[in-house]
Specification:
heterodimer; A: mainly alpha; 10 helices; B: Rossmann fold; three-stranded antiparallel β-sheet; 6 helices; 33% helix; globular
Chain lengths: 223, 215
């Protein structure tokens, strides 16, 4: 069972990074979103430094939406989902494996770009490591929560916007606590502050509940 | 590939299938014994695909039951069936061998890969990306997955449609071999079913009969 999950997750990574995949797009989007920040709010280093950590969370949330549309839609359209349903693995675990594979394939490159993006936004170098750790946990929570939107919108053609509309309100708690954790980190240097613990709790809760919800939603599309 | 025989049989009782507001099939009852084949006939839209999906557990019937005995309960239907639908579940960017390898690894039959590629005639295409396969080659890919999954009940949705004559001969041979092992073949067809003779179920006639007996 665990072996099957590993195979599904690694297939997801291979498909995202293989020919015709779009593995680097969300990371490029993330970088682009950070790059235009000084144009929008002005190049004042103090202002950038003040909004920088929160802006990274915002850019991360938007970048995760880029890849969510195709998470289940491609498999639904080409019949792969039918074949996966016929495997002796519960659909909720298939969902979990796909979401985790997608997270590794897409969030990995985004997180690699984060240190550079943080420097561009004048985040103090001492806090970049802590901020990165918070964004790792936050990206997992965002990806899993977004998986619900991806599952619900899977059968809608050009459903990317719909997926984003479903996912964005669900992102609110993660963003509120994530940006709060980043603020505490920058002001006091405390990494495991209360907001960050709540982000971790959200990630763990999503890990347990999202597969069930998204699996049930996919069942409806397969019928 | 396991050489052991299969002993599953399929029994369908009082099955009613509905798509939207339309009743496709009402009160359908039939049994298929090990080693038997059943050809589903009927015009386009008569419910052949929906019936196959219901047999695979992919479609929830409005009423009635599908049971695969010698196997587990109804909600485990999927684990006993291999399904070749009109969608071949092929990714355009990944090589054929890698994609088949994934399904083989899930089924634990990776060792049978080379032999299977030879059987369906895809050996030379093994390293090509899925996107360049022709319609017939895509169907051969789906047949290779069917063989690698090695399930007792084969559900085929017009499997011969895109195949050339050599491909149809291969398909016929595969179905005969599967039935000789005690496997079951249920296939939607429009012309002669591939392989040896099999029983026919005409869905149009079933629907007609159910409409006449309805109050």
């Amino acid at each position: 069972m665990i072996g099957a999950l590993g195979k599904i997750a690694s297939r997801e990574i291979a498909l995202t990074w293989g020919a015709g995949g779009s593995g680097f797009l969300p990371a490029a989007f993330f970088f682009g979103a950070v790059m235009i920040a000084p144009f929008a709010v002005g190049p004042d280093p103090r202002l950038l430094g003040a909004i920088g950590p929160g802006y990274l969370w915002l850019a991360l949330a938007l970048a995760t939406l880029v890849s969510l549309e195709r998470l289940f839609q491609a498999d639904l359209e080409d019949g792969t989902l039918d074949q996966l349903v016929l495997q002796p693995v519960p659909l909720s675990l298939v969902v979990l494996a796909k979401a985790l594979g997608q997270w590794l394939a897409v969030a990995g490159p985004i997180l690699l770009v984060v240190p550079v993006a943080a420097v561009m936004l004048k985040v103090a170098p001492a806090h970049i490591g802590g901020l990165l750790a918070q964004l790792v946990a936050g990206s997992l929570a965002l990806f899993l929560v977004g998986t619900i939107g991806a599952a619900l919108g899977a059968s809608v053609r050009r459903g990317g916007l719909l997926v984003a509309l479903i996912a964005l309100p669900l992102y609110a708690p993660v963003l509120i606590f994530g940006a709060g954790a980043a603020e505490v980190l920058v002001k006091t240097g405390e990494l495991f502050s209360q907001p960050f613990l709540l982000v971790l709790a959200l990630a763990l809760g999503a890990l347990a509940l999202v597969p069930l919800a998204a699996g049930a939603a996919l069942r409806l599309h397969v019928d | 590939m396991k050489a052991s025989g299969f002993t599953c049989s399929v029994s369908v009782a009082d099955l009613t299938l509905v798509r939207g507001w339309r009743t496709l099939v009402a009160g359908l009852t039939f049994d298929v014994a090990p080693g038997a084949g059943l050809a589903l006939r009927g015009p386009n839209g008569s419910g052949k695909t929906t019936l196959l999906r219901a047999l695979a557990g992919l479609h929830e019937p409005r009423a009635g039951t599908v049971r695969i005995s010698g196997g587990r309960a109804a909600d485990d239907l999927g684990q006993h069936v291999g399904f070749v639908s009109h969608l071949d579940a092929i990714k355009p960017g990944q090589p054929v061998a890698a994609q088949l390898g994934f399904w083989a690894a899930l089924a634990g039959s990776a060792a049978a890969m080379p032999e299977t590629l030879d059987l369906v005639g895809l050996r030379r295409q093994a390293d090509l990306p899925g996107g360049v396969l022709s319609a017939g080659q895509r169907r051969r890919f789906a047949l290779a997955r069917l063989l690698l999954l090695d399930r007792p009940v084969w559900l085929l949705d017009e499997p011969a449609a895109p195949l050339d004559s050599a491909g149809r001969d291969i398909l016929g041979g595969l179905l005969d071999r599967h039935r000789a092992r005690g496997g079951i073949v249920i296939t939607a067809v429009h012309d002669r079913p591939p392989g040896g003779a099999m029983d026919t179920l005409d869905l149009a006639a079933v629907t007609q009969a159910s409409r006449e007996t309805a109050p």
